[in-house]
Amino acid sequence: MQTANRVLVNSLALYINMGVTMIVTLLATRYALQALGKEAYGVYMLVANITAMLSFLNVAMAGATQRFLSFSLGACGEKKDLNEVFGASFVLHIGIATVLCLAILVLGAGGIAFLLDIPARFTQSAYVVLACMAAGVMFSVVSVPYEAAMNAHEDIYQIAIINIVDALLKLLAASGLFLFDTGRLPAYALLVMGVSAVTCLLKYGFARRHYAECRYRLRQWPPRQTMRRIVGFAGWNLVGNGASICRYQGTAIVLNAFFGVVVNAAYGIAQQINAFLLFFSNSVIRPLRPLVVKAEGGGDRKRMIRLSFSMTRLTLLMMALVVTPLYINMPFILRLWLGEYPASTIAFCRLFLLITLVLQSGMGLVTAIESEGRIKWLHLGAGLMHILPVPIGYALLQHGYAPTAILVVVLVEEVAATLLRLYLARRQTGLSARRFLFGLLLPAYGALFAAFGAAWFVAATQTEGWSRLLVSGSVHTLLVVVFFLPVLSAEERGKIAEIVRTALSKLLNRH
Fold first, then answer.
1. pTM check: above 0.70
2. Which residues, including other chains, have CB under 8 Å from residue 249's CB and lie 6 or more apart?
């Protein structure tokens, strides 16, 4: 399949995946909240946050595996290199799965017993949830090398299909809770763990069948040099990703210490909104990420930088289309989605919208730096920044500030981290900081703010409801598309025009 056709197929599959998964996950969250209640759902989300804090090593290794597989395919595609990279990744992930499972069980149990504010009647259920999540993390870790191989080979549409199956099974698990009169919290944890096992088997089966390097056997021990390269890359990736996860999950623990599990329920709902946005953004840039790394692997630095700029433009454009309608209509959307919801949920959700928008401004920069390979200062600098909001937020809450104060600190810190990424991309890859800042970022935000102001004005003239959502969303979408056209490069506008002409031509020929 040609590169352009593959990107198109992958993009369409991811958009379908995104739409189905978002709708299904919204329903699953609603059913879980209704079936469990605010306190039990808060307990579930709190334990999930603890598990996420302890599983950040897996996130780092996932990025390292995909990068080296994509780089090897771009450089030469030698079967021997691919086998060595996958073998090293597989061995490392087996070790990571074992260590993480033990760490989650031991440290998580200590947290439940001595650190977290959990009502006594939920204590035993919290231990069951912890054990199920530890097993679920094991399944997720073991599946990482196989999903990374699917990404590197650009068979992303298959990942989309598996993600849809995963989401539908989780919806089935949430809706099935109403069949239980008691013990709904541990039952939910067991069902979600079973879904993780099924998803792992699906990724394993596809990758083993289609990629020779994935038919790895433990007796084929990989070279130490390859393992050191992956561990070295993942080590710095670990710092940045670990700090990012600690930022959000540490925030959950701080909120729990001051306000209890009901606020954790509100924060957990806001994190669901954040997860949707990140999933949406990842659906946009995922088909481009392997191309950026392969361009660098093939020695084409100019193309790598050009693709990084395109990734940033496309991400901001797509994020702009969803952030404003969600921000303006958040109370209506939450009532439509959840019915009743905890206090502070609206403010948490709106702040996460802004944080995610700023975060996506630097994703093209991050991909460019990771493609080049020297990621020490990227993750060390940004990692140190990511840790700061937790102690600063704790101090603010101690002085009587509202729960949302800690997320305001996260927003300010994310702006500073984006500027750091821009400086490092300029120094390490030769990317033009002036062109990125004044030719891309500022015009893009100018277009977004102009469209936001118009949509807010229109929304203010209407009563909250479907009409306001549709009208303000339509006005905002139209203005964003118009205002973003000057931000796009001539090549990008030409490709968009070509796609539109092709689509119209096919449509007219059918009739």
1. no
2. 49, 50, 52, 53
